[in-house]
Amino acid sequence: MNYEKPDPKALTGWRIGRLIGLCILLILAVGASIAVNLIDDLKEAAIPVYLIGGALVLLGLLGMLILPVIEYRQWKYLMTDEKVEIVHGIFFVSTTIVPIVRIQHITIEQGPIYRKLGLFTVTIALASGTFQIVGLQEERAREISETLRARLYNRLEEQPAAGEESE
Q1: Is this model's pTM higher than 0.85 or not?
Q2: Nearest 5 degrees, angle CA 97-CA 93-CA 53?
Q3: Of the four listed, 2, 3, 17, 151, which is most buried by Cβ atoms within 10 Å?
Q4: What pLDDT was estimated at residue 46?
Q5: In what order do the strands lie in the sheet with 83-88?
Q6: Gap between the Cα atoms of 80 and 99, Å rounded
Q7: DSSP secondary structure string, 95-139?
Q8: How far apart (Å, rounded) are the C-alpha atoms in residues 36 and 81?
């Protein structure tokens, strides 16, 4: 069985997403530092606020640089005639098996970061939840969508209708 990986540009997309989170964290840390300096009652809390803010920003920076690489190494998917298997995670690696006969609908979507990178996400919806194959080129995303649709229809045609007896 040959697992497939997301497009390498997905790594850039994940880094950009984490960079946005880091910028928000940095704004909050700077705001807390300013508040500590302006409010006299909080002057004694300045050093802990600086240390905690600095540590969080440092963690965010490391997370932006290192975690996407680990995530990309873990991320893979496999499509067979009966199922889609998705393996992902950073610290806790999850393997999700989606039976094709349970698929309710398939969506191809693109957020603002992926739009700039020319990448797409295929979302597979079941009654129990949604599952995603991320970081795909448009041609591959459409191919996956059509393949799943065709396999679903073939599997449904093979099953006997409710009330029919199988021979």
Answers
A1: no
A2: 135
A3: 151
A4: 83
A5: 76-79, 83-88, 94-99
A6: 10
A7: EEEEEGGG--EEEEE--HHHHHHTEEEEEEEETTEEEEEEEEEHH
A8: 60
CB 75 within 8 A of CB 93: no
77-158 has CATH 2.40.160 classification:
no
- Those residues with Cβ within 8 angstroms of residue 110's Cβ, 6 or more apart along the chain or in another chain: 119, 120, 121
Residue 118 clears pLDDT 90, i.e. is over it: yes
**What amino acid is encoded at 27 in this protein?**
I
Structure tokens at 19: 């960079």
- The CA-atom distances, in angstroms, between 154 and each of 20, 82, 99, 132 are 43, 10, 13, 22
pLDDT digits (tens, 9 = 90+) for 20-76: 999 999 999 888 888 888 887 777 888 888 899 889 989 999 999 999 999 999 999
Q: Dmax of the chain from CA atoms?
A: 85
**CA angle, 77 then 145 then 70, to 5°:** 25
Residue 151: Cβ within 10 Å count:
19
